[in-house]
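Last lecture ended with a question: if I hand you only a sequence, what can you say about the shape of the protein? Today we answer it with a concrete record. The protein is Fic family protein. Below, first the input exactly as provided, then the predicted structure, then a couple of comments.
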Amino acid sequence: MADQPQRAGRWVRQSTGYRAFVPAPLPPDPPLLIDGPLQALLSQADRDLGRLDALATLLPNPDLFVAMYVRHEAVLSSQIEGTQSTLEDVLAFEADAVEAGTPKDVGEVVNYVRAMNHGLARLAELPLSLRLLREIHAELMQGVRGSDKSPGEFRTSQNWIGGVGSSLRTAAFIPPPPQEVMPALGQLERFMHDSRAELPLLVRCALVHAQFETIHPFLDGNGRVGRLLITLLLCAEGALARPLLYLSLFLKTHRAEYYDRLTAIRSQGHWEPWVAFFLRGVSQTARAATQTARDIVQMRETHRGAVAKNARALALLDRLLVQPSVSAPRAAQWLQCSFPTALKLLTDFESRGWLREVTGFGRNRQWRYQPYLDLFHREAVDASLAEAAAPQVTGSAFQGSPPA
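The predicted structure:
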């Protein structure tokens, strides 16, 4: 593939000497070449996404599963940014059962859940727009690390990407200067809604995500908002009836290649290898989510069948699909029954291997619906195995630093 450095944008020297990258408007010029292997990847990704969407419509109560997928994505997306909190930490936080040793950054993950839910709910009222992205960012950054960095506002100062202690001189990448942020965002918003672009939706998602990360319009939280933007665009365009596709696990597993692909766009104009990488992620993620959803349905029916004559047990199973962390008082509240009745149900579920007691206490005990959580943790193991077996996407990547 020939290098075309100006295809994605240009480096512009600023008055203080550093060079910042100003992206060219989408779609790329010359146009994307979607043929051969890239066309095959697109067709496969479309099929895998379609199967996932079709399965979601057949689930007995899709909203039960969406809530857990949202939490799972929040954990993974936040871990890319350096948080240590796990899915179990988030569930304990929501159940008011935080223990000593719980990472302090659990609030960031809980904020991500709230920001995601806010964005998905607002799609019924607003188009996918810069206004909506600002609202999502405000929810994401409220009261946590980065809350002093203009939550809900696009930046008016220069930022950069690099390791701890990096500066404008040593940064790995310098996004557009402040005066170029709003023009670039305006062009991105127009592209998201431009039917004349005549590009397949998944290709548009790939372009939009890369362009958003290149603009880096917020002082903090750009990665999380950019990953959420993929799901929002798929839902806004009707490709998904419910938000069940999240690429954070794929991007976390393939982090080095992810950064290399973005860098190769900016330095060499290599859009096609990035789109191929993105489509491979959609396929892997959609297939994993489809299998997990099937396994959840099978597990649910098996467990319900075992207690089919007990209305309270059935109600408890349904609540555990939404909130898999529970105590006896909370179960009693859910079921509107006495504490001893709730405790008896929980201990029965524990004896069946459905619940695992996690405190080791005689009192104030907490249980988790462990077989359910294991299905989500299995995705991470499967993703690691897939990474080891997958062929690398062709195309070179820029390995050095940008001009300083």
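Comments.
1. The longest strand covers residues 9-13.
2. Residues 384-404 have pLDDT under 50 and may be disordered.
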